[in-house]
Specification:
With 459 residues, the chain is of the alpha+beta class. It folds into two domains: 3-104, Glutamine synthetase, N-terminal domain (Ubiquitin-like (UB roll)), CATH 3.10.20.70; 116-452, 2-Layer Sandwich (Creatine Kinase, Chain A, domain 2), CATH 3.30.590. 36% of the residues lie in helices and 21% in strands. The strands form four sheets. Strands 8, 9, 10, 11, 12, 13, 14, 16, 17 and 18 form a ten-stranded mixed β-sheet that branches. Strands 1, 2, 3, 4, 5, 6 and 7 form a seven-stranded mixed β-sheet that branches. Strands 15-19 form a two-stranded antiparallel ribbon. Helix 4 packs parallel to helix 11 and helix 9 crosses helix 13. The radius of gyration is 22 Å and the shape is globular. The mean pLDDT is 95.
Length: 459
């Protein structure tokens, strides 16, 4: 064990003892964001810190491995150590998978780490905050789902205090856990769909936020299960209700002085009137310019494209963008500027892998900065009420209609090929696109109940 490893071991050992922790989750996620872990007793902590936890990578999900490949050794990041308040004898550490001593380029956390390291070479840090929406449901005898709260049937349930009150035991427990972990919970609300909620915590550097979102999802699933319910971050669990998004707030900061770089600087001219710096506008322009490919990572499953589009579901409003546009405090577009210190990217949904999403946002945004791209004039119109011909006349592009369209666009993106890095088989973006094409075709080849209902005797 090196001196650095010994120091990290001593630090974690002291925290484990102080916290009364008996077990460690050595965690990583695969392409889909599924949390994978081994439960390591603390008596084996020294070996975990020195050598990592071993995994048969091919069995965990799309990780670029076959049964013929060597084990992945997942090396814990000591800075990610978090005691789990809902299971206080357990702590979690997020890991960077390696194979034969080298960081594994198919691992989403490794991809983000390398992207952030490259950003640090420019004396820059990306900070992010997320709005993680989820639904609490129960299963029917036929396998279908229903909203868990049988009284949550209002046509416009968003912010409803009664629905919030009925879920207080769950929401307050989650809030207490967020604060116990030091994340700074500042809001909890009933969202736009029946049975849908959102709980917010403070922003941080992109890696920390990604690690926390992985743990947040695990916590929500665990707490719902303990109540005999299911939690889902699925983008569109109900066809007639608002879907689950992952709105992401993004800003760049200087690494050495921790100075925010997206607010308008002293003496700088505001070219768009939204209070942002030229760097922020250029970053937004990069996201808009590459939106057709970026959406494959931000909205990565077949179900994602049932959430997107124009028109309101019966539960109220739609919160998913249909067009690659930006502007001020306008929720009908892909990028909103809620305050003059950050941009809100409204593209992502509950299925997005946060490590891959943040790496992709960074690649596209920095391409805008590096090439001084212009996002155009801010949109102020309600895009959901404009005629499509008028939207096209304004030069605003419609986002792809399906996962396979988005995957094809991703495969053709050189910016995302560079931003997500290379693997032994070529760009990771090509591997991602290949997996997603197969996912789409597998779904597309299934005959659904809806098809039977519509077509069985139509002809």
């Amino acid at each position: 064990m090196s001196a650095n490893e010994a120091g990290a071991f001593d630090t974690i050992k002291a925290r484990v003892e102080a916290d009364g922790v008996e077990y460690i989750y050595a965690m990583f996620v695969e392409m889909h964001g599924k949390p994978c872990a081994k439960l390591v007793p603390v008596n084996a902590l020294e070996g975990l810190m020195a050598d990592g936890a071993g995994f048969a990578g091919f069995a965990s999900g799309p990780m670029g491995q076959t049964p013929a490949d060597p084990d992945m050794l997942a090396l814990p990041d000591p800075s990610s150590y978090t005691q789990l308040p809902w299971q206080p004898n357990v702590a979690a550490m997020q890991c960077d998978p390696t194979v034969e001593g080298e960081l594994w380029p198919y691992a989403p956390r490794v991809i983000l780490r390398r992207a952030l390291d490259q950003l640090a070479e420019k004396n820059l840090v990306m900070k992010t905050g997320v709005e993680a929406e989820y639904s609490i449901v129960e299963r029917n005898d036929d396998g279908s789902i229903r909203v868990a709260d049988e009284r949550d049937t209002d046509a416009l349930p968003c912010y409803d205090a009664r629905g919030l009150t009925r879920m207080l035991p769950h929401l307050t427990d989650v809030s207490a856990n967020l604060n116990a972990m030091g994340w700074g919970n500042y809001a909890n609300d009933h969202e736009d769909a029946n049975g849908q909620f959102e709980q917010n915590w403070q922003y941080a550097d992109a890696m920390t936020t990604a690690d926390r979102l992985v743990l947040f999802r695990l916590m929500i699933h665990t707490m719902a299960q303990r109540d005999g319910r299911y939690a889902t971050f699925m983008p569109k669990p109900f066809s007639d209700k608002t879907g689950n998004g992952l709105h992401t707030h993004v800003s760049l900061w200087s690494a050495d002085t921790d100075e925010p770089l997206f607010p308008l600087g002293a003496g700088e001219v505001d070219s768009k009137g939204l209070g942002l710096s030229e760097m922020a506008y250029q970053f937004a322009a990069g996201l808009i310019g590459h939106a057709q490919a970026l959406v494959a990572v931000a909205c990565p499953i077949v179900n994602s494209y049932k959430r997107m589009g124009v028109g309101a579901p019966t539960s109220g409003a739609t919160w998913a963008p249909a067009y690659a546009a930006f502007g001020g405090n306008n929720r009908t577009q892909m990028i909103r500027v809620p305050e003059p210190d950050r941009i809100e990217v409204r593209l992502g949904d509950g299925a997005a892998n946060p490590y891959l999403l943040f790496a992709s946002l960074l690649a596209c945004g920095m391409d805008g900065v590096n090439n001084a791209m212009d996002p155009g004039e801010p949109n102020t119109a309600n895009l959901f009420s404009l005629d499509p011909a008028e939207i096209a006349a304004r030069g605003i592009e419609t986002l792809p209609p399906t996962l396979i369209h988005a995957a094809d666009n991703l495969a053709g993106s050189t910016v995302l090929a560079d931003g997500l890095g290379s693997t032994r088989g070529g760009p990771y973006s090509h591997y991602f696109a290949e997996v997603k094409r197969a996912e789409f075709l597998s779904h597309h080849h299934e005959v659904t109940a809806g098809e039977i209902d519509r077509y069985l005797t139509l002809f």
